[in-house]
Amino acid sequence: MIDKKLEELLKKSVIDTMQEQNVLGKYQRKNESKSKKLNESYVAQVTNFDLKTELLSEKTKQSHQELFEGYIKELNATSTKLDTANREDVNPNHSQFRSLKLDETHNHNAAFLHGLYFQNISDLSSEISADSIAFMRLERDFGSFDLWQEDFIACCMAARNGWAVTIYSMTLKRYINTVIDLHDEHVMISAFPVIVMDCWEHSYYRDYLKNRKAYVYGMMKELNWNIIEERFNIADKIGALVK
């Protein structure tokens, strides 16, 4: 067991080493004139989505927008609290810092997954072209577009109050479908999302009751392939950089 004196000595040794390498020294000098408190908080902005689909009721759309705004509000509040959180008395069992970091991930994913979902649904003229990047990449990595669709629907049905997401995996260097439970369980590392489907009960229960599959089919009929194509273009650029 490391006693307090040894812990302080080790901490001092690390700080001295960083100052010698002019790493921590630069950081301290930069901030001494401002404040000794950490200042890395950020603010996410609310976007209002005009969902034209008639496959979701107006009440569902409104309550979903309000839920989305609530996650952004909580994310911003958590970010602010993290600036002044105690970073000394931290442990893996229970500590303010640990709780805030977990809340940050939960609310961050909730906010941005909702935004991605709203963007890629509700296209009343939904159409995908066989020569689009999205179509060609899904054909390449799943064998056919229909096989991607079958696998994606299976992910939608498998999620336990969560999400189905087609991602570009920077580690596998290909597109795959994945299931996220809640907002922050089973999230793959190095994943860039290109197609997002909300599978929480609140997204469909008012309109479809227990028939999640009918909801999923409806949303997939109105996927916004123009938005999705932009994401595939970005993912392709990422793929070129991580080769």
Number of helices: 9
The CATH architecture of the largest domain: 3-Layer(bab) Sandwich
Major β-sheet strand ordering: 2-1-3
- Secondary-structure class: mainly alpha
Proportion of strand residues: 5-15%
CATH C-level class of the largest domain: Alpha Beta
Rg, rounded, reads 22 Å
Question: How far apart, in Å, are the first and last alpha carbons?
Answer: 44 Å
- Largest β-sheet summary: 3 strands, antiparallel
What percentage of residues falls in helices of 4 or more residues? 40-55%
Element-level helix/strand string: HHHHHHEEEHHH
Count up the domains: 2
* Unreliable spans: 17-35
- From the spread of the alpha carbons, the general shape counts as globular
CATH superfamily of the largest domain: Iron/manganese superoxide dismutase, C-terminal domain
Kindly report the CATH topology of the largest domain: minor pseudopilin epsh fold
Question: Any descriptors?
Answer:
minor pseudopilin epsh fold, 3-stranded antiparallel β-sheet, 10% strand, globular, mainly alpha, 9 helices, 243 residues
